Amino acid sequence: MAQPIIRGIQAVGAVDIIYGYNGNGGKLQLNPEVMKLGNAVTTEIDTNGGVPVAGFRLDGEFLRAVQQIASSVQVPILGGGAVALTNNNRSGSLNINCTKTSTPSPDASKGGAEGAMYRPEGASIGPNRDGVYDLVFLAQVQQGQPGGDSEGATIKVVFDFCGLTTTISFEGCTIASVDPIGLAGNDAPNYNVSINYLNWTTEISKTKGTVGNDLTTFVPAN
To answer: What's the structural domain count of the chain?
Structure first.
């Protein structure tokens, strides 16, 4: 008897992380007491339908989800027995290490939308397309919602492996902590974003890519 020989193929970086706020039509409110964008002219960040986030280092683990509540607990009984108590709780924490690669755009003209990564006109810096966001910025805005966050967000992680696509959706996401700033010398520091989620679901599609994968489609926020 021996383990089978398995050969898998996964393209490095072939992953999409999509963020969408659940309340207020998907719009995050900018609290001027916490953060100002464009001299406070911009008052909200629209994430309705889900927006892609980027800025992760290639040389290490950048995302891990951890279950917080044990699905089984054993209670010892006198005499040597035990009672096993099980539950279906699927809450946990999502830890994402991000790297600052751009600055949120103060208006829609340089990035495609307010708060998206800045794309200077005619320059070869910033993302290669409009509408890409920095998760650190979105987490900081969600954390600072006026009156507190009572809606949460949905985060979808989509990746291809051996020709098929897996989508994991984290629901009821709230910000546990997010680093305000990280600076380094000859290095790009990680910003840790710690997110609590209430539930997660998964879908493995029959084909590569997001086409036909129902969970990659966001339900419009109320």
So the answer is: 1
CATH number at residue 194: 2.30.110
Residue 3 falls inside a structural domain: no
* Residue 152 or residue 119, greater confidence: 152
Longest CA–CA span in the chain (Å) reads 77
Mean pLDDT of 70-92: 95
Burial class (CB in 10 A: 0-12, 13-18, 19+), 16: middle
User: What is the DSSP track for 69-117?
Assistant: S-SEEEEE-TTS-EEEEE-----EEEEEEEE--S-B-SSGGGTSSTTSB
First to last CA, the chain: 56
- Tell me the C-alpha to C-alpha distance, in Å, between residue 132 and each of 36, 138, 209: 19, 11, 19
- Mean pLDDT across the chain: 88
pLDDT tens across 57-79, in order?
Answer: 888 889 999 999 999 999 999 99
Range of the domain at 120: 15-209
pLDDT at 126: 83
- On whether the CB atoms of residues 166 and 61 are closer than 8 A, the answer is no
| The pLDDT of residue 124 | 79
Give the tokens for residue 114: 């307010």
Which residues, 6+ apart, have CB-to-CB distance to 141 below 8 Å? 28, 29, 30, 31, 35, 45, 115
